[in-house]
Amino acid sequence: xxxxxxxxxxxxxxxxxxxxxxxxxxxxxxxxxxxxxxxxxxxxxxxxxxxxxxxxxxxxxxxxxxxx
Length: 68
Description:
Blueprint: H1 3-24, H2 27-47, H3 51-58
Helix pairs in contact: 1-2, 1-3
């Protein structure tokens, strides 16, 4: 699995986790987490910088098209 796919899967998982937090009664934490994930995805689309991609590269995952 490439770094790109892991980053997208992780972001999707974090969004679902934030929605679950909001559902069980932590709306403030949920909104903060959703905002963080959304802003990180948006800035990485323009800059190509993603902290998770750096960690995954050091762990030995193969590079994809978006994060080298």
